[in-house]
Amino acid sequence: MSKSDSLLRMEQLRKKAERGAELEAWGYVGILLLPVGLGLLFAGSRMRENANQEMDELYKEVFIREPLTGNFENVSFEPYEGFSEEMVEGFRLCRMGNEFDSEAYGRCDRNGVHIELSDVTVRDYDRLAKKNNYTTFFKGRMMVLHFPDRIGSGETVFSRSFSDRALSPGEEQGKVSIGNAEYDGKFDLYVSELKDASGRVLPRLLEKLGSLSERHKGVAAKLDGNRLILAVNDGDGEAFYRKKKKKVSLEEELAKVQRDIDDIKAMIGLISR
Known about the structure:
By secondary structure, the chain is α+β, with helices and mostly antiparallel strands. It has helices spanning 3-29, 36-71, 85-91, 169-172, 181-186, 201-215, 250-272; strands at 73-78, 99-110, 113-125, 134-146, 152-159, 175-176, 187-190, 218-225, 227-233. Strand 8 and strand 9 form a beta hairpin.
């Protein structure tokens, strides 16, 4: 199936899922008219679930595997595997809740840099709340870029919009000025020792983090030895291909994915210089 055919099929499935949801609604309304109401409810539920499952499979193929294969080397992809909860907690970027999920695990290479990535959802469920029981701390993609040489010593950068940060009171005391008016207005920088902050890597990293932050709800990064850990948060909304109040263009979303990849590739080039 070509890329245009895949996008067309996803749009068809989205409409099918919406029709299924409408049937479910009529099923609830007509449940007093048994068995008609139950039939509508069952048919609508099956239609919606089947369409969403196929959309999910197409999404992983068209929006993750194919872009990785087209832009990186030595690509491997496991759609239903992901980072472990312990690994994400060890990144010390996002606040952890009592519910965790990760899938769409990919590995690839670019100019001697090895990359691992996965979609991650971190939520907290409040059993005492009467409604809105879930608080989403992170829903997006996390990446670990392994460089051949050391690039940092624990420097952590958050865009101002990245709210649920994994910072202890002691770490919060390590906030310092970046020394650039534009970047200081967009990011918060935390270091253990100011003298250890990488004056070579940080400006190059911030240049591309700025581009990513314009397209997403929040971004965070940590320079940890030879690793660059990235967290790109899209917030607590449903994935773009599911039912949303505001319709989106699949072609525009795919173009945004490519711009993200281009920024990651440029980031690798800048840091590797």
